[in-house]
Design brief:
mainly alpha, 13 helices
């Protein structure tokens, strides 16, 4: 039976507090916010304890131009620019940072499949309220990474080898034909522009950090698929790619450093073949690259041989 990370005595409690160690950095607006000392959090979900709280929305504060008064007849004189909606941008930034940190924890296996994590406990770890954590978790629920457990929190979805193999096969069915078509139509100079991204995957692999490599790997593949000029293709392939990077249940972590380095090396080898205009080498390397994700996929071999 899985225990909620919200319970202090249950096994999930310590896990939740230690699972995510990436702090959310407050913005300059957070440090400068003022207001009532009695409020512990402002509207973006950041904690206010020990710091001045943010100004109430709509309240005029020093350093901001006052709202313009009613218009009167006369010559048109440009007024001060409208103040930027700092609270909304700030809140989006906090939610985005929390979402990135949770995705990284999923990629590394720190958020363990089958465990239940509560938004308040994870919020304590981030130094934010439960609201941005809950919003980030709801996004992960839409992506299929977690599921809502009423009155408890969010359970990390357990994936078996079969499901990950199916995701890898879907990736191959989507991406392999596009890679091979682009190899025939994209000029060498365009491929050369992707060299920094390929080198970025190599650096991330050398660091041995699965989360860093997962992000660099997606960035490289996203840039390749973007050459097709199909935004829906990039979006769908990126979603499948991200889901395929989550480790299966029972796995202590994602792939090891040696596997990451080998995968990154395939990126640079592919670019070399694409820049050289060697279709046979490209075909073989594309097949090798995607077969690494699912080596027992007969469908992948059919696609590589047939295109």
């Amino acid at each position: 039976m899985k225990h909620s990370a919200q319970g202090a005595a249950g096994p999930g409690a310590g896990t939740a507090a230690a699972a995510v160690r990436i702090p959310v950095q407050p913005s300059a607006a957070d440090v400068a916010r003022d207001g009532s000392r009695g409020r512990s959090r402002d509207r973006d979900g950041m904690r206010g304890a020990g710091e001045p709280d943010g100004a109430v929305r709509g309240e005029h504060t020093h350093g901001e131009p006052p709202a313009p008064g009613p218009s009167v007849p006369g010559p048109s004189v440009p007024g001060p620019a409208a103040p930027r909606p700092r609270t909304l941008v700030q809140r989006s930034s906090v939610r985005g940072q929390v979402l990135d940190a949770l995705r990284a924890a999923l990629a590394t296996g720190e958020l363990r499949p089958g465990e239940v994590y509560s938004a308040p406990v994870l919020g304590e770890r981030f130094g934010v309220s439960a609201t941005p954590v809950r919003e980030a978790m709801q996004q992960l629920a839409l992506e299929g990474a977690v599921e809502v457990v009423p009155n408890r929190g969010f359970r990390v979805v357990e994936r078996g080898d079969r499901e990950l193999a199916e995701l890898a096969e879907v990736r191959a069915l989507i991406e392999v034909p596009v890679w091979l078509r682009l190899a025939r139509t994209v000029p060498a100079e365009r491929w050369a522009e992707l060299r920094p991204l390929a080198e970025g995957t190599a650096r991330a692999a050398s660091s041995g950090c699965p989360a860093a490599y997962a992000e660099a790997d997606r960035a490289f593949h996203r840039a390749v698929l973007a050459l097709a000029g199909n935004e829906e293709l990039v979006r769908i392939a990126g979603d499948v790619h991200r889901r395929a990077q989550w480790p299966p249940a029972g796995s202590p972590a994602a792939r090891g450093r040696a596997d990451l380095v080998a995968d990154a090396h395939e990126h640079t080898a592919l670019l070399d073949a694409l820049i050289a205009g060697d279709p046979d080498a490209v075909r073989a390397l594309v097949g090798q690259h995607f077969a690494g994700a699912r080596r027992d996929s007969g469908v992948l071999g059919l696609w590589v041989l047939g295109l």
